[in-house]
Amino acid sequence: xxxxxxxxxxxxxxxxxxxxxxxQAINLFIEMQSVNSHCRIDDFTLTTMLNLAAKLxxxxxxxxxxxxxxxxxxxxxxxxxxxxxxxYSKCGCFNESCKVFDGCSPVLDLVSKNAMVAACCRRGExxxxxxxxxxxxxxxxxxxxxxxxxxxxxxxxxxxxIKLFILMVENGVKLNEHTLASILGACSSLKDLKYGKxxxxxxxxxxxxxxxxxxxxxxxxxxxxxNMKYAQSVYASIEAENSFAIxxxxxxxxxxxxxxxxxxxxxxxxxxxxxxxxxxxxxxVKYQQCEFVFELLREFIxxxxxxxxxxxxxxxxxxxxxxxxxxPGKEIHGYCLRKGVKIDEKLVSAMxxxYSKCGxxxxxxxxxxxxxxxxxxxxxxxxxxxxxxxxxxEAIQLYEELLQRKFRPDEITFVALLSACRHxxxxxxxxxxxxxxxxEYNILPETDHYACxxxxxxxxxxxxxxxxxxxxxxxxxxxxxxxxxxxxxxxxGNLEFLKEAEEKLLRIEGDNGARYxxxxxxxxxxxxxxxxxxxxRKMRGKEVKKFAGCSWVYVENSVxxxxxADISHSxxxxxxxxxxxxxxxxxxFVVSI
Length: 593
Known about the structure:
Layout: H1 2-17, H2 22-32, H3 43-56, H4 59-71, H5 78-90, H6 94-102, H7 110-123, H8 126-134, H9 142-154, H10 158-170, H11 177-190, H12 193-205, H13 212-224, H14 228-236, H15 243-255, H16 259-268, H17 274-286, H18 290-304, H19 310-322, H20 326-339, H21 345-357, H22 361-370, H23 376-388, H24 392-404, H25 411-424, H26 427-441, H27 447-459, H28 463-471, H29 479-492, H30 495-508, H31 513-525, H32 529-542, E1 550-555, E2 558-563, H33 572-592
Antiparallel strand pairs: 1-2
Helix pairs in contact: 1-2, 1-3, 2-3, 3-4, 3-5, 5-6, 5-7, 6-7, 7-8, 7-9, 8-9, 9-10, 9-11, 10-11, 11-13, 13-14, 13-15, 14-15, 15-16, 15-17, 16-17, 17-18, 17-19, 18-19, 19-20, 19-21, 21-22, 21-23, 22-23, 23-24, 23-25, 24-25, 25-26, 25-27, 26-27, 27-28, 27-29, 29-30, 30-31, 31-32
């Protein structure tokens, strides 16, 4: 009979620890309590079930177990108390965790202490955690140190977690992989190359670099610090294939636009996780290589059959928005509806942005209205969409709704609002919004805000007020602001101020061919041909070039890009043949008229 009792207890533990078998664990525990069962519910069984309640975050299960433990006097030993503290903490009941801890034995035991320190860190009560850690310091072991270091890092106090690590080393406490996992993660979050190098040197000194987990963590630090040279050096020293290190390298290369290297490493992976897929998608979107985004999506669906990662879908929607290609965006929207993909705030904001930038503001509005859990990002995207489509009244009304719902506007909100005002010529309202940024919300204006105000005055034919505004800007003006000044000069026909703007702009961005073209066109519009020629000659003298404008069309699940006199397309002969046919038909049509 004893054998069957042990078997049931270990079966229960197996069910509880394996994802997808939680219901079986609960049913077996109920069966173990039945009248006919020969099992006695011991401390081990109860702590197993408390851990399951914590895993599922089902408070009612935990409370019932706690009541049972009190009735059977199983709530006093260290492991039971620590499991109760952990359960209440993970179910969001920090005060209950404190009550359990305060009600335990007057003699502080290490297991309960560590559990309470972890609960404090989980809650963000770092001062309480450090005070408890310092109480009876002789009790502290490596778990105590690891818990505190990890807690400070996860709550954003990264530098404090590094100081704790140094203190841990100085106190001669034995380190393990959990310690290094926390401190490697902290250094990665801080993105401080100095700390990364010091930690790397310490690991080399302690002869721990051969550990593949630690080595890949060092690779990750250098990648986060944007130092791919060091990352590559450490990565090359790893003998066996290390998927985590390769993933870090792919993320690092993608973030720096080195997408050929990222793709090469990506293709070398036998098993590709969501991290590397998302990193490559994000890299292509960030550097606007949108045709590769759509190509990668087809590859992903072919390999994985379904897209379960919402961030991948967000990246594809962003690529559609960049190229104003509504068809792939609509396909992603339809895919989400057909497959029952969980629609979260990021996905909703990406859909609204995509439809807005593809010219379909009504679809963007419909998605906005149907989604009830709106956050500030969703409001910002919709306000921006209204502004760019000339719906300034709707943009302002949405801003008022945002305030009524107790959201606090940010920098992006005010860029969208000021854009709405400049499109509608609402000078006074724009000024009021601009002044309220710092006065009411303590937001310092940035380049885009200043550029919007300059453009607002220019469009309203108030160049004098724009000049007055320029003199009050408490920072050095950049190319974006001076570009806005050029547009204002064009609107107002002020050549005197145009020359001043030209001088300042070319001093900042003298190697940007687009600025020379912009200036030449402004002088041409005013029929100042000598000035236009002067700018053109200056452009040739500096040998600057303007990127060629291009057009694209989305046909047969791929993006086709064209520039003037382009012959790089694989079907260029057929395209030019069709173009000649159309030109001939148009000529015949003109003759017949």
